[in-house]
Design a protein that fits this description.
A 4-stranded mixed β-sheet has the order 3-2-1-4. Helices cover about 25% and strands about 25% of the residues. The chain is globular and about 30 Å long. It is an alpha+beta fold. The longest helix has 10 residues, at about 35-40.
Length: about 70
């Protein structure tokens, strides 16, 4: 994946959304893996898919992994 930047997925908020940061930029609130994939594509990581998001060492999951969406 070209131009690898640190990706941080923050703990779930009250509504189950998780903040997504790519590099120094907040990309939005994700409510599932597909939202994260779309944010990564918009950030230039066109090869990202759900499996990549789950397994990549570039993704730092805070407050639970890819299956945690409730506060």
């Amino acid at each position: 994946m070209a131009d690898a930047q640190p990706i941080v997925i923050y703990p779930p908020a009250e509504d189950g959304g998780r903040r997504v940061r790519v590099g120094d930029h907040f990309r939005g609130m994700a409510y599932g893996l597909l939202d994260i994939v779309e944010f990564l594509r918009l950030a230039g990581l066109e090869d990202a898919d759900e499996a990549w998001v789950r397994e990549s060492g570039l993704v730092e999951w805070r407050g639970g992994g890819p299956d945690v969406w409730q506060h």
